[in-house]
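for the recovery benchmark. tokens below, seq after
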């Protein structure tokens, strides 16, 4: 089911890309006719380019913000199975208790 959803997503994005290319290509044509449909396509092409520029700018800002924040801090691990420090102390207590019981 997930595969079919992914296929639908890919086909939808391909269709959108084809439409976008068609609009941009039509907007670049230097027709001397005063075609209202061509004017609409040129306006759509401008809007698409503005949206793409905003998206690129937003991605760059996100990368820069993440770099400024820094990497995520990892939790401290112990030698007892790679658990966090609090559970590591619990394991150490159990190990000490077993040593005492053995004597």
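predicted aa per position
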């Amino acid at each position: 089911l997930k595969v079919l959803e992914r296929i639908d997503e890919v086909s939808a994005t391909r269709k959108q890309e084809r439409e976008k290319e068609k609009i941009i290509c039509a907007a670049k044509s230097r027709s001397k006719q005063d075609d209202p449909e061509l004017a609409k396509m040129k306006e759509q092409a401008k809007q698409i380019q503005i949206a793409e520029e905003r998206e690129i700018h937003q991605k760059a800002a996100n990368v820069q913000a993440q770099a400024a924040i820094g990497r995520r801090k990892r939790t401290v691990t112990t030698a007892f199975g790679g658990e966090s420090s609090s559970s590591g102390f619990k394991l150490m207590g159990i190990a000490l208790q077993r040593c005492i019981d053995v004597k």
